[in-house]
Amino acid sequence: MGMCPEHYIDYMHDYLDGDITREHEQELKKHMQSCVSCQKHMHELSDTVAFVKSATHIMAPPHFEANVMGRLPKRKNVLGIQKWLRRHPIIVAAAVFFLLMGATLMASYPNDNQFSVTTQPNLVVDGQTVIVPKGEVVKGDVVVKNGNLIIEGEVDGNVTVINGSYMASTAVVSGQIEEINETFDWLWYKIKKLANDAMALFE
Amino acid sequence: MDALVNKRIKQVLKGDQNAYADIVNLYQHKLYQICYRMLGNKQEAEDIAQEAFIRAYINLHSYDQKRKFSTWIYRIATNLCIDRIRKKKPDYYLDAEVAGTDGLDMYSQIAADEQLPEEAVEQMELQDRIQYEISRLPDKYRSVIVLKYIEELSLQEISEILDMPLGTVKTRIHRGREALRKQLNNL
User: Fold this and answer.
1) Residue B121 Cα to chain centre, angstroms
2) Same domain? B72 vs B25
3) Is there a domain that residue B81 lies in?
4) pLDDT tens-place string over residues B55-101
5) Using one digit for the tens of pLDDT, what is the confidence trace for A136-191?
6) Sign of the torsion angle spanned by Cα atoms B56, B59, B64, B65
7) Which end of chain A is more exposed for a tag (fewer CB within 10 A), N or C?
């Protein structure tokens, strides 16, 4: 067979794969009519294919399915959470944002019970109580921490009382009045303040 | 069948583990057969076929439902088989005595990787002979021959399963056939 050009062998394989062109097939047939060794080679290849194809079908053992089901990993919550996280990236981003924001704001939550008040000249401080005297007009925002506020006069601005109480009977306040006692109130107040400051930047 | 498979896959992905039983049931024989023909050993074939189903289950979320499930899971199985074949070789010394077998060495444990004497081969039953000849093929030819002639898959599917170009699959099938032809005619 060594005498025959290599490409006849290639044609044989193309023929066995079922993708030989018509011209090649005719060329191969013509060649094989006169070449015993190529005939033999082709026969051997066909026999080889028939030999492998005569393999019986093998079945999986009867307990196979049950064994696989028994070996499956139990559904872990971790997997579920991971899947959920993968599907909701925006919620995850928002959650991380709030977590970090919250941590920052918490850090600034007044843990000390120190009494403090904004310094306006006409505020009267009596122990832990701040008084806006009758007839007086206090300009600007008034913030009282860990103390009470009594307004008898007028405030031209916002009033905020943190961890204390606010008393006003006939008060005139041009801005908003807020009383903050809880942590969440405090957070909300801080966030609003941040937002207001940010708005102020753009104005 | 594909519609049923995709329905079951969706159920599994939603958390219904039992829906996976139908998938195992549909593909168990095909998958086991590939593994058995590749590895030539029932115990290993069962091991690897089970492993393939478990890997498929764990990675089910990464399966692209637009493609054929059989192609995907056959690929997992053939990769595991090829890994196993490659690992098996340097894992132990062939002439080391096997513990508790009283003088038997590893040669007697290997199904058919080594060439047997001619008379022994001639006396084999046809089915044993087929498995023996397949096992003697180098693993890169073995996988294409098994997929083509035992599983009767198209060249296109084989190229997807083995993740290699169609031309490479053809070349390997040609060489695999030649190798088998030589094995059969040496006797």
Assistant:
1) 23
2) yes
3) yes
4) 999 999 999 988 999 999 999 999 999 999 988 765 455 554 454 54
5) 888 888 888 888 888 888 888 888 887 777 777 666 777 777 777 766 677 788 88
6) positive
7) C
Q: Which of A55, A80, A83 is facing B150, going by the closest CB pair?
A: A55
A7 touching B, CB under 8 A?
no
Interface probe, candidates A14, A19, A49, A65, chain B, greatest B C-beta count within 10 A: A65
| Nearest chain A residue to B135, by CA | A52
pLDDT per position as a tens digit, B28-39: 999 999 999 999
Q: Which of B177, B171, B5, B147 is nearest to B78 (CA)?
A: B147
Report the C-alpha gap between B78 and B68 in whole angstroms. Answer: 16
Q: Is B24–A56 a contact, with Cβ atoms under 8 angstroms apart?
A: no
Alpha helix (H) ranges present in A35-182? 36-53, 64-71, 77-87, 89-107
Q: Does a structural domain hold residue A77?
A: yes
For residues A88 and A41, membership in a common domain is answered with no
**Range(s) of the domain holding residue A141:** 116-202
**A148 φ, ψ (degrees, to nearest 5):** -105, 160
> How many Å is the Cα radius of gyration of chain A?
45
CATH of the domain at B38: 1.10.1740.10
Average pLDDT, chain A: 83
ipTM: 0.80
CA B49/CA A162 separation, integer angstroms: 68
Would you tell me how many other CB atoms lie within 10 Å of the CB of residue B136? 17
Q: d(Cα B55, Cα B20) in Å, to the nearest integer?
A: 12
Nearest-Cα distance to chain A for B51, in Å, is 8
**Do residues A147 and A112 touch, judged by C-beta distance below 8 A?**
no
Check CB contact under 8 Å for B155 and A72. Answer: no
Buried residues in B103-120 as b, exposed as e (16+ CB within 10 A): eeebeeeeebeeeeeeee
Cα–Cα distance between B100 and A192 in angstroms, integer?
79
Name A172's Cβ contacts closer than 8 Å, sequence gap at least 6: A153, A154, A155
In whole angstroms, give the CA distance from residue B84 to residue B96.
20
On whether residue A127 sits in a domain, the answer given is: yes
* Position A60 confidence tier, pLDDT thresholds 50, 70, 90: very high
